[in-house]
Amino acid sequence: MKDIKQKNEPVLGKKSVLVLVLCSLLFVSSIILLFMQQKQRLNEEFESMVTSSLNIHTHNNAARINQVITDASSTIRAAEAMPRFIDGHWSQGFLEQINVMNPTHAIEYITREEMVAGALERETYQRLNRGETVVSDIRYYEPLAGYYFSVITPLLEDGGVTGALYTRIQADGLLPEISDSAVYKHVQSCLVTSDGRIIFNTYEPNQKGNLFTDLGKYGLTRAEVNQIASIISSRDMDSTTFNRKGETYFVSADQLEYNDWHLVTFVRGPDVLLRSERIFKDVVGTSIASILLTTVVGCIVFIMLLSSRKRLEQAQRCYVMLAQRLQAMFNQHNAIQLIFDPASRCIMDANPAACKFYGYSREELLSLKISDINMLPSDQLEKRFQSLNEQNHCSAVPYRLKSGETRLLDVYSSPIIDGESKLLYSIIFDATDREMYRNELMKEKELLETTLRSIGDGVVTTDNGGMITSLNGVAQELTGWDNNAAIGRPFSDVFILQNEDTKQPIENPIQKVLETGRIVGLANHTELINRHGQCLPIADNAAPIKTKDGQTNGVVMVFRDVSSEKEHSKQIKFLSYHDPLTGLYNRRYIEEAMIRLDRAEYLPVSVIMGDVNGLKITNDVFGHRTGDVLLKNVARLLEKNCKGDDLIARLGGDEFVILMPKTSLKAAEAVIHRIKNTHIAMEGSNLSLSLSLGCASKGTMESSIQAAIQEAEEYMYHQKLLDGKSYRNAIISTLLATLYEKSNETEGHSKRIEKYCHAIGRKIQLSSKEMDELSLLALLHDIGKVSINPNILQKSGTLTSAEWDEMKRHPEIGYRIAQATPDLAIVSDFILSHHERWDGEGYPRGLKGEEIPLVCRILAVVDAFDAMTNDRVYRRAMTVKEAILELEINAGNQFDPEVASLLIEIIMNEDDGASK
Fold it and tell me: Which UniProt keywords apply (predicted)?
């Protein structure tokens, strides 16, 4: 047993050693597994921390780039909205004034011609032509010795691009290499497009290749390259990691708002101050040592745990430090910052700047929803939330403050992850003043453009090289050039100016202003030859456009068409020396001509004075229109019988004069003879034109033309006395003939009336003068009917009210005719009163009873009896008995009863005598 025991002891010892070794291996394996799990957990936490920090860094840089581009675009838009000096086009001086106001983003101007000539890439020009704001690629700009890109905004007018405004932004400072000792040593960044084209990078600025191709060259697998391409093409912030040659690389990407640009940020694992690879090596070393020495394993494990804990604590401190920094940025930054839940619309956090701006305490603000402060209608606000994944920038959104004031804000939002929740982080800028300024500028611009459109003068502007920059509507109409065709051309190509009289070219006023820097006016008698070849007389002035330092930066010229003014001036000049009715010279011209002709070279100077016979009666009978025709006929008659150098004038009324230089008295008498032998009938009457003429002559320098005029005038008046009575008698005969022709009145009617009037006159023993007046009245009482429409005189039916009013005018017309003729003036008042009634119901004055002259009362009874007993177009004649009955009925109403009784007695006696 002993032997057995002795034999068995080694066996037992070997088993114990084996068990111990197995237990040790199991223990070491458990320790290694535990450490591997711990390492994996630490790696995951560390990678999460580094990734989160890198994402924040990338997003902040992306937001910063967006803000810089947006600010530049807003500056250009605000400048573009400013009132361009004339009709929407820029001058260098105006840009310099804008750049003084805003030196951060210096604005420059490029013309459409420069763009077409190749100053811009074709794709950029096409995008501008569609009205898009373009952000150019980043290039090395030698004049400024740095990398720059441009923000370009088109200037559109009438559906086309007229130019563009742009500002340069330095790219070197947009992607700084960050040194952060708390997390990593440095970070490299680059701007790429979604297809990997490198726009700019911080590690090798001259490199312009393709990021995906370069990554493949560095040994990345296709899957890793595709993963990086995936996070770049994502609309949201995204990140990834990959391992290369034992090193971990962290990659973060965020999309910019412009040009399909993406910001990609890289950091190498060795650059991270807390590296999980180092932990892994320590653990592996400890595991190997634990296998060799179980006793030391516990110590190494303890040391590793302690070391890992310290590193974890250090990482946590770094994370806390980063969080504190971010929190400090959130709390201390002057920009308004909000974090809210897009699902519930609740505000989750707000920095002090937001509380101060909105006027709420933090607690009050966190109790509100976005809809409580955002003034957009609910449907529009909902659309904004739904589109946040596609668009993270909103401009000029109305927000309401606690005070009730409304402010317009620019909002930049991006999603952030808080555990399993997706929140929105917003940076907000107050744009109220900018929008107010923009609106005011737009109003001023609209006012100026409206003024230019409505102004009656043409306006053209040029640059300091004399090239046209704008034409307003009136200028386009007058020149025949539209804006698109004229802009960019030399002034002299569009404005061809010449002297109106000599047709010689006029000095270019624009060039003169550019040379002198002073206001220049066009000379008188300047013509513009427009694009259609028409010549327009114009008046204008050109003034320099000055910069702030007094330099001439262009010219503005205001001009107008003075065709109507010149025509009006000609008319005024013509009327000042001519009679407006006849077109002959007037008294003023003749008086000046008398002075001019009072020279020996014009001797002898003969004068003919003329006076129109019967002008007044013509006006009274036929109206002033016929009188005017009479005067015009006289003018043509005189022109027809005079030489070309004779001066014919109407002195006024019915007087004419002819000044005949180098003409003898005998020749002047021959002219008078020709005039008198020329028969011209008056339009609308049977009268012939009649002139009384007299002549005289100035044969020596000792005599005067004025004396000759007086002598000719005396001779003319002598002739007028000789011709006047015969002409007046001719007028009376003509008027009576016209009356008999136009109406039912006949010469027999006048004779019958005269017969009965004389019979009554003898009965009441009228004087011979009264009998003569009665005879003349019987002949001429209806003379005024010559001016009445024949259709009314011969109408067979009842007259209308208007026709009757016209008919009742003939006593007044007859009165004026008689007044115009001295021999007839004695019966003018009788003619006026021959239709008055005994009861006062007559016309035109409504005289009554014995207020009516006796001869008129006699004529009224006799005229009525003759009218009743003779046929008329509107009725048949009455019998004598019927007519006598009418006289008896109307005696005391229409007729003087005594006169009516006398006429009845005379008629009855005639009938008795006839029956015997």
Answer: Membrane, Transmembrane, Transmembrane helix
* Type of residue at 464: N
Residue 236 has pLDDT above 50, yes or no: yes
Exposure string (b/e) for 672-710, b if CB count within 10 Å is 16 or more?
beebeeeeeebeebebebbbbbbbbbbeeeebebeebbe
Cβ-contact 258, 279 below 8 angstroms? no
pLDDT digits (tens, 9 = 90+) for 876-897: 888 989 989 999 999 999 999 9
The strand pair at 520-521 and 393-400 is best described as unpaired
Q: Give the integer Cα–Cα distance in Å for 725 and 613.
A: 10
Q: Cα(249)–Cα(220) distance, rounded to whole angstroms?
A: 11
Q: In this structure, what DSSP letter does residue 374 have?
A: B
Q: Are 799 and 789 in contact (CB under 8 A)?
A: no
835: tokens are 């239709």
Is the distance from CB of 380 to CB of 405 less than 8 angstroms? Answer: no
Instruction: Please state, in angstroms and rounded to a whole number, the distance separating the CA atoms of residues 825 and 756.
Output: 23
* pLDDT at residue 899 in the model: 92
> Which residue from 536, 535, 542, 540 is spatially nearest to 559, judged by alpha carbons?
540
CB of 265 within 8 A of CB of 253? yes
Residue 87 pLDDT: 47
Q: Residue 63's pLDDT is what? A: 84
All domains of the chain, ordered by start, with CATH?
24-332 (no CATH), 333-436 (3.30.450.20), 457-562 (3.30.450.20), 578-725 (3.30.70.270), 743-915 (1.10.3210.10)
3-state secondary structure of 160: strand
Beta-carbon contacts of 32 under 8 Å, excluding residues fewer than 6 positions away, are: 283, 287, 290
Residues near 160 by beta carbon (within 8 Å), at least 6 away in sequence: 112, 129, 484
Q: How far apart are CA 168 and CA 147, in angstroms?
A: 10
- Look at 82 and 41; give whichever has higher pLDDT: 41
For 643-694, the pLDDT digits (tens) are 989 999 999 888 999 999 999 999 999 999 999 888 666 555 556 678 899 9
How many Cα atoms are found within 13 Å in the side-chain-facing hemisphere of 412? 22
Q: In this structure, which amino acid lies at residue 910?
A: E
Range from 239-248, 753-762, 802-811, 812-821 carrying the lowest mean pLDDT: 239-248
CA distances from 483 to 90, 123, 157, 261, 594 (A): 14, 25, 10, 38, 57
Do 87 and 444 meet the contact criterion of CB atoms below 8 Å apart?
Answer: no
pLDDT tens by residue, 599-620: 999 999 999 999 988 787 777 7
Considering the entire predicted model, what is its pTM? 0.42
E strands present in 280-375? 336-340, 347-350
State how far the Cα of 889 lies from the Cα of 857, in Å rounded to an integer. 16
**Three-state secondary structure of 490-511:** EHHHHCEEEECCCCCECCCHHH
Token output for 567: 């025509």
Q: What percent of the chain has pLDDT over 90?
A: 20
| The pair of three-digit structure tokens given for residue 326, joined into one six-digit string | 């971010």
- Element at 543 (helix H, strand E): strand 535-546
Q: What is the distance between the alpha carbons of residues 898 and 23, in angstroms, rounded to a whole number?
A: 176
Chain center to CA of 238: 53
Name the average pLDDT for the chain: 81
Q: How far is 736 from 821, CA to CA, in rounded Å?
A: 14
Distance CA 34, CA 1 (A): 47
Q: Give the integer Cα–Cα distance in Å for 106 and 97.
A: 10
Specify the DSSP class assigned to residue 849: G
| Secondary structure letter of residue 269 according to DSSP | G
**Would the CA dihedral through 402, 406, 407, 413 be positive or negative?**
positive
Tell me phi and psi for residue 178, to 5 degrees: -90, 130
**pLDDT-based confidence at 289, cuts 50/70/90?**
low
3-class SS of residue 488: coil
Count, residues in the chain: 916
Q: Which run of H or E residues covers position 297?
A: helix 294-332
